[in-house]
Predict the structure.
Amino acid sequence: MTEINKTVLLTGAAGDIGTRLRPLLLSRYSRIILSDLQEITDLADRESFQKGDLVDKNAMDDICKGVDAIVHLGGQSVEGDWDTVNHCNIQGMFTLMEAAHQAGVERLVFASSNHAIGMYSRNRRICVDSKVRPDSRYGLSKAFGEALCSLYADKHGMRCLSIRIGNVADKPLDLRRLSMWIHIEDLFQLIQIGVEHPDLHNEIVFGCSQNDRSFWDNGPAFRLGYRPKHKAEDHVVHAMTNQKETGPDAIGDNFQGGTFSSAEFDGDLERIRWS
Ligand code: 15L
């Protein structure tokens, strides 16, 4: 891949997706700044590490200096209590965004999540214009992040891409993931669109590979040039074998968000199932 001269900041770099992304980012961009609360020591030549708490404005101001694009994976990546989700994903992302704006960072790629729309029935095929329907406090924080991107794109001219990531793994893990799995190389393709596409203003796309059972119409991603290479159906035996072991979830199996939707559920299943 041709290397291009850009400094990319990767937040949440020590996590699973961050670790998978590092070699791909290195294959394309000249300088990668890795940031996380957990120290990363196995640095490659063009990688550097800056420890930073997302809610620490001084640290974020420092980290954003000289950065062309941010790939924001950092924060809380699963459901948590409100204080945790609020601290990491609401206050943290706001602090990062403000620091990025003040430092003149041109682009931000936000790792949003399928859980921003997880209360949709699996019978529904939705598009990015469908209203948000979070399945958890975590999903709610991702909807906030998408709105924050909209604000900073419209008001401050930042170019933003929110990727509603399904599930990143080597293979789809179960029946639900056959609909929303994404291979890391396909995710990287979407990230490249966020970092490089000349006409990007603010877009939301679904982060899924070429999945026959997708719940999502990913038109905006395709219009931006996304051409996923990996297919969930190639791993159907693996996914269904795992599914048998997991067993049913009477509530979660109705919803796109799965166990995130069924956790703490005491709503009216009949009323929402078809809405
Ligand atoms: C997510 O947003 C989480 O970060 C990840 O850990 C998985 O739970 C994924 O969604 C999923 O829905 O499979």
